[in-house]
Amino acid sequence: MRVRAWAIPLLILSLAGCASRSPMPAGSFSGKDGPEAVIPPDLQQIPDAAPKIETPRLGGPNKPYEVLGQRYEPMTEDKPLIERGLASWYGKKFHGRPTSSGEVYNMYAMTGAHALMPIPSYARVRNPANGREVIVRINDRGPFHAGRIIDLSYTAALKLDILRGVTMVEVERITYADIRSGAWQRSNPTPVYAAAEPVGAPQREGRPMQNAPAFWLQLGAFSQLDGAEAMRNKLALQLDWMAPMLAIFTEASLHRLQAGPYATRADASQAAERARFALASGAVVVERK
After folding, report:
1. Structural domain boundaries, residue 281
2. Is 158 in contact with 32 (CB distance < 8 Å)?
3. How far is it, in rounded angstroms, from Cα 138 to Cα 155?
4. Sheet holding 246-251, edge to edge
5. In terms of C-beta density within 10 A (0-12 exposed, 13-18 middle, 19 or more buried), how is residue 233 classed?
6. Assigned domain for 90 exists
7. 230 and 140 in one domain?
8. Which of 143, 207, 234, 251 is most buried when burial is the number of CB atoms within 10 A of its CB?
C-alpha cells in the first residue's frame, strides 16, 4: 500500500525525526544535536547488546513506508544482510524521545537505527579502520541520507571511535538462526578497548565540560549468571521502555542487573519510581564512577 502524500509529514514525525539527523565534527556542534554537557564516565564498559529472539512487531515500524520521496520496505524474512557504508550517530536532540519502535531513545545504550532491518533485531557493526566492533539492538528507523547505512547511539559510536563524524563501517545483521545456534558469537574473545576521551560539547561560558558520576538502577544481584539473564529477559518484556538500558555487571561473585546510565541522580530516581510502580518491587539507585 502506498503512503499518501499528506501522510508523509506524520510518518516522518513518527520516525522520531530520523530524516533530519546530521552528525557534526568535534568542536562544531550547532546546539541542535551532539553530546550532552555532562557525559557519564566509563561508557566504554557498557556491555554490547545481547542478541536474543524477539518477534518482529507486526505493522508499525515494520510496514512499508515512504520518507522524502523514497519508499522503503522493511525485511519480513530472517535473511542475512551485510553492508558497507557510512555510519552516523545521534545524541541529545533525541535522547529521551520515542524511537520508531515506541521505545525511549537512550543515547548511552547500545542501540541503532536502520532503514530496513526488522524491528527489533540485532546487528554487528565494525570499524575497519581500527578493527573495533560492537553489537547493537536495532529499535529505530533511519538514517535517511545518501550513503549512510546505520545511525548509532552515542555509546556505540564512542566504542567504535567514530564520534568525530560520518565514518565507513561494515554492518552485518545477526539472524534468528544465528542466535538459536550461537553462531553469532565470535570464537575469539571480545577485545578490550583502550579508554578513549569522549567527544565533548564546546566550552560554555569559559568552563570546560567535565565528566561526572553515572547513576544506575540496581534491579537485582544474583550468584548465578543464568538468574541475572532470566531476570533481564523478563524485565525486557514487562518494561519495554527500559529494555535497551538493561545490563549485567559481574563483580566478584555477584552478577548485578542494572539499568542506565543516567547522568543525574534525579533522572535515575524518577526512573526508579516508574519501575517500582510497574513492578511493585524495589529499584535502588547506585552510583558508578
Report:
1. 214-288
2. no
3. 14
4. 246-251, 254-262, 214-222, 284-288
5. middle
6. yes
7. no
8. 143
Q: d(Cα 285, Cα 181) in Å, to the nearest integer?
A: 36
> Do 161 and 280 fall into the same domain?
no
DSSP summary character for residue 273: H
Task: Tell me whether residue 197 is in a domain.
Answer: no
- For residues 50 and 164, state if they share a domain: yes
Cα–Cα distance measured from residue 129 to residue 32, given in angstroms and rounded to the nearest whole number: 29
Contact 52, 175 (CB under 8 A): no
Other CB atoms within 10 Å distance of the CB of residue 210 = 9
C-alpha cell at 144: 535517511
Cell 565494525, located at residue: 126
CATH number for the domain spanning 131: value is 2.40.40.10
**Least confident window among 84-88, 169-173, 247-251:** 247-251
231 shares its domain with 104: no
Encode pLDDT of 126-184 as tens digits.
Answer: 998 888 999 999 999 999 888 899 999 999 999 999 998 889 999 999 999 999 888 88
Residues paired with 172 in a beta bridge: 82, 124
- DSSP letters, 153-216, are -HHHHHHHT-TTS-EEEEEEEE-HHHHHHTTTS-SSPPPPPPP-PPP-PPPBTTB------EEE
Q: Give bridge partners of residue 103 from the DSSP assignment.
A: none
- Does 187 fall in a domain? no
